[in-house]
Amino acid sequence: MSLKFLAILAASAAAAPLVERTLLPPFSLPNGQALRASGVATKRVGFQYAPGIGGGVYSPGGTLGLALIANDEAITTLDLTAEAGVSGPDLTKATLDVAKYNNLQSLSDYVKLYSDEWVLSSSPTGQMPGMLTNYTQDLLFSMERLSLNPFAVRRLIPGSDSVPFNVDSTIVQDVTGSSLSSLLSAGRLFYVDHSDQAALAPTAQYGASCDALFYLSESSNQFLPLAIRTNVPNANKLIYTPKDSANDWLLAKIMFNVDDFFHGQFHHLAATHYVAEVAFQAAERTLSDNHPILAVFKRLMYGAFGIRPLAVVVLLRPGGDIDQFFAHTGSAAGDYSANLYSTGGAGDVMNNYLLTNLEKRGLINSSAGPALPHFPYYEDALAIYNSVHTFMTSFVNSYYSSDSAIVNDSELQAWMTEANGAAGAVNFPTSSTMNTRGALADLLTHMAHIVSTAHHTVNTNNLITGGGVLPFNPSAIYKPVPTAKGVTDVASYLIGIDQVLNMIENQAFFSRPLVANSNRTVSNMFNDPVMLGRMNSATRAANTQFMSEMNAQSAAVSSRQFDANGLCQGMPFIWRTLDPNVIPFTLTI
Ligand SMILES: *[C@@H]1O[C@H](CO)[C@@H](O)[C@H](O)[C@H]1NC(C)=O
Ligand SMILES: *[C@@H]1O[C@H](CO)[C@@H](O)[C@H](O)[C@H]1NC(C)=O
Ligand SMILES: *[C@@H]1O[C@H](CO)[C@@H](O)[C@H](O)[C@H]1NC(C)=O
Ligand SMILES: *[C@@H]1O[C@H](CO)[C@@H](O)[C@H](O)[C@H]1NC(C)=O
Ligand SMILES: [Fe+2]
Asked: The Lipoxygenase domain covers which part of the protein (predicted)?
């Protein structure tokens, strides 16, 4: 792995020095000048669409497109080289300490993998407090659906949805105090469906392609698990509930987490990388380099095109990290992402605006059932989203004096046409709906959301701090899925001592501890002195306000503690992932 990085690094060492960007003119809207239009036409010739690197949506081609990829690969490589300086010493220490893991014979041995280990890679937060102590609690499992991967769960809506699978009515009564049909009609039943993974090519590891029911308890007002069903081709489907033996039920939750991990990773490839890449390529081909909207979009896409070439080499290739550590092959994962993009809703732009998406899944403002008592992802994502939206509104209003100026901007309108046409965007605003300043602020806010908040919720620092933390959150199991209940040794299903440290190092490779408190964080999303120097004073003032709001949000997130009930945001673990002074403002691998 590192040899490849160093080779890329050497190739990019001679990259061109920065041009004298400060001498460039202030950003402006198109003014009808032929010179500007011909500049865009020339850029368009050099910036082409090429087949997607590693499959999926188009990647940039042409001389300018390839230069962009090379520039971004150099950024990605520098990041990973720096990261290797952190994860390398962590791996060395973890390897020297191998005796203390006791050959991973019990679940508590898996906890020791993190005891005074991987400290540099998981800084500044470390593993989420509670994740290694409270993982057998049902509330921890269910609340992971509303924090670590919030993109799979939905409320079942009475009248339009039916109960997806039946569960023994005595057990349902016992667990919930109600029946499945009453829970559904009360809007208290929720569902996650990973059964589509059963069709994907397997690796040497195993996954159970589970679907699962959750409910909002009337007595405790908590969001809790009700049943997990395995869906293995040509095998019994087993339905597990909290009334099973502790070992069976724990293994069921772990098997569900395997599928949810896969979903989180390969949904994010489509819903964040693909969507942002497509929108940006269309923007490059239609907006002048002097356009303020393109300038902000370029800032958001810092380094973004360096990721897919690297993902092919490291993750998706035969024998790569996906094949080694997941239940489905890298090639199947690529197809799964591509399908989610084109037909599975992950590629949709407007439908996935933060509030729209959560509302469509019945998680906020639901017409049926009570509100969720706690929804950590919504709480933390919304704070960032609202501040970005405030920035984007000031920024857009400072350049467009009215809605008619939006309609009149020929480059902006060409962007909409290009995105819906050759670029292959899905559910993107059209030139007839991009007709207000609000519509533009919404679109830009969404792009900022997917490259930062949405991405880092499931990826980046999340893996080594929570979403991949053993023993409860593995990416595969290592024995066939049980065909009958009565499991006695859950630990025997988990990754063995021979591979486990490589697996954790792989997660360390996704984390970005060195970005924390640097000029690469969400708080610095717009804080590029060169860019702001070419903007107007209203935009500079909006950036100052944004940074101060993000600093306040960081203080709130980083100081979170357990309450008197041992909960934080209603969860038995502390979720500090979306700290704007810790996570990058850009996509990472
Ligand atoms: C949800 O409802 C609140 C008021 O309860 C409202 O302010 C908000 O705009 C609604 N959200 C959406 C996405 O409609
Ligand atoms: C419309 O665009 C033209 C240039 O294409 C510009 O000269 C004019 O000022 C714009 N009008 C408005 C209302 O923005
Ligand atoms: C961060 O600051 C360094 C040093 O001033 C600068 O070279 C770099 O471009 C900045 N990075 C970003 C993403 O703004
Ligand atoms: C979760 O674990 C922490 C210790 O890591 C403990 O302080 C807290 O009380 C636990 N919460 C519950 C609900 O058990
Ligand atoms: Fe990513």
From this structure: 191-589
Residue to probe by mutation, ligand 2, list 28, 31, 407, most atoms within 8 Å of CB: 31
Q: What is the per-residue pLDDT for 22? A: 55
Give the binding-site residues of ligand 1, using a 6 Å CB cut-off.
Answer: 355, 359, 365
**Mean pLDDT across the stretch 400-416?**
98
Residue 125's nearest CA partner among 588, 586, 561 is 561
Q: So what's the pLDDT on residue 48?
A: 98
Buried b (16+ CB within 10 A) or exposed e, 383-394: bbbebbbbbbbb
Q: Is the pLDDT of residue 7 over 60?
A: no
The amino acid present at 311, given as its one-letter code, is A
Residue-level pLDDT at 31: 86
Specify the DSSP element, H or E, that contains 211: strand 211-216
The C-alpha atoms of residue 528 and residue 585 are separated, in whole angstroms, by: 12
Which tokens is 417 given?
A: 């046409």
Is the model's pLDDT at 12 over the cut of 60? no
Measured between alpha carbons, how far is 229 from 212 in angstroms, rounded to an integer? 6
Please state, in angstroms and as integers, the Cα–Cα distance from residue 246 to each residue in 141, 233, 239, 250, following that order: 14, 26, 14, 6
User: Which atom number of ligand 4 is nearest to the Cα of residue 139?
Assistant: 13
Whether the CB-CB separation of 334 and 57 falls below 8 Å is answered with: no
Residue where the block lists tokens 């009334």? 243
Residue nearest to atom 1 of ligand 1 (CA): 365
- How far apart, in whole angstroms, are the C-alpha atoms of residue 255 and residue 465? 19
Atom 8 of ligand 1, residue of closest alpha carbon: 365
Instruction: Put residue 32 in one of left, alpha, beta given phi > 0 → left and psi -120 to 50 → alpha.
Output: left
In order of 123, 157, 173, 175, the CA distances from 241 in angstroms are 36, 22, 12, 9
Q: Rounded to an integer, what distance in angstroms lies between the CA atom of residue 28 and that of residue 558?
A: 39
Amino acid at 399: Y
Q: Which residues face 161 on adjacent strands?
A: 158
The residue contributing the CA closest to ligand 4 atom 4 is 130
Instruction: Kindly state the helix (H) or strand (E) to which residue 389 belongs, with its residue range.
Output: helix 376-399
Ligand whose nearest atom lies closest to the CA of 365: 1
Spell out the SS3 assignment of 398-411.
Answer: HHCCCHHHHHHCHH
For the CA of 410, the closest atom of ligand 2 is 5
| Confidence band for 19, pLDDT divided at 50, 70 and 90 | very low
For residue range 114-133, what is the model confidence (pLDDT) as tens digits?
999 999 999 999 999 999 99
The DSSP element (H or E) to which 370 belongs, if any, is none
Q: Which residue has the higher pLDDT, 190 or 11?
A: 190
Tell which residue, 321, 267, 315, 257, has the closest CA to residue 475. Answer: 257
Instruction: Report pLDDT for 353.
Output: 98
CB 545 within 8 A of CB 391: yes
* pLDDT on residue 498: 97
Q: Which token pair is 175?
A: 């667990």
Residue 316, pLDDT score = 87
CA distance 304 to 72: 6
Q: What is the mean pLDDT of the chain?
A: 95
Interatomic CA distance for residues 200 and 329, integer angstroms: 8
Flag whether pLDDT at 472 surpasses 60.
yes
Closest CA to 286 of 157, 411, 463, 159: 411
